[in-house]
Design brief:
Strand order of the largest sheet: 6-5-4-9-12-14-15
CATH class of the largest domain: Alpha Beta
Structural class: alpha/beta
Number of helices: 10
Shape: elongated
Number of domains: 2
CATH architecture of the largest domain: 3-Layer(aba) Sandwich
Radius of gyration: 19 Å
């Protein structure tokens, strides 16, 4: 088979992965009418180029400067794990009175739980969805950053948002990422999103990462923080214990739920 045909097949595999969120080797072999071993070789090439991450029997797409999943897609993936992460994150608030809540589906779940916390909180957020959940609690003060709204995530970005954050001192920042790795720290595809996250991390006394295990070992386009900047990484039990230990030696506690 020609190199061109192989490139076209891998393009189809990548498009399918980005459309569905996860792909299986057997399904791809049937769809493309090729051997499973051919699919595995294609997945290896795509992984070597940082476009996918292989799993047992399949793969999922890595978010990059050219691709970012929608909130609808995130809301349908590893949902039980994200709910457990949200519960653990709220349990780890400690004595924080002011909290930054990031954009993203898992932070949105955290905001829904913060909305029913009985003690008063001041919550700053870059997420329209999170602000809507929090504003219903009259005990809380909810501050929504101003700026441009990203249609894909309903997150607020650009210099208006970072300017508001610069004038604050926040007890705890609850931050997501599209990827985090020991080599490249915490990353996200969009420079404007990275600027908001970076500023929130800088003005906060404590920082907590929240995200599913598929984020680990992944590097996206823009770095906004280092692993050592965080006191806590909250993820699900899909992250192997030995991998959790490799991150914990860099400084943060790793909680697997």
């Amino acid at each position: 088979m020609s190199v061109k045909a192989g490139d076209e097949r891998r393009r189809q595999i990548l498009d399918h992965a980005r459309g569905t969120g996860h792909i299986g080797v057997t399904e791809l072999a049937d769809r493309l009418a090729v051997a499973s071993e051919t699919v595995r070789r294609d997945l290896k090439v795509l992984e070597d180029h940082g476009l996918i991450r292989r799993t047992h029997g399949g793969a999922y797409p890595v978010e990059s400067a050219g691709f970012e999943s929608s909130m609808d897609r995130r809301a349908g993936s590893l949902v039980a794990e994200k709910h457990r992460i949200a519960e653990a994150a709220v349990a780890a608030l400690g004595d924080a009175e002011t909290v930054f809540v990031d954009e993203g589906y898992t932070p949105q779940l955290i905001a829904e739980r913060l909305a029913v916390v009985e003690r008063p909180l001041t919550v700053v957020t870059s997420s329209l969805a999170a602000a809507g959940s929090l504003a219903a609690n009259s005990r809380h003060t909810t501050i929504l950053l101003g700026g441009r709204v990203r249609g894909r995530t309903m997150g607020i970005v650009d210099h208006w948002a970072t300017s508001m954050l610069t004038g604050l001192v926040i007890d705890l920042a609850v931050l997501g990422a599209n990827g985090l790795s020991r080599e490249h720290g915490l990353t996200t595809p969009d420079p404007a999103v990275a600027a908001v996250k970076q500023t929130a991390a800088r003005v906060s006394r404590r920082r907590m990462f929240v995200g599913v295990h598929t984020k680990f070992g992944v590097a996206s386009f823009c770095r906004f923080a280092e692993i050592a900047d965080f006191e806590l990484l909250v993820t699900d039990s899909g992250l192997p214990a030995y991998e959790a230990h490799r991150y914990s030696v860099m400084g943060p506690q790793v909680v697997r739920v």
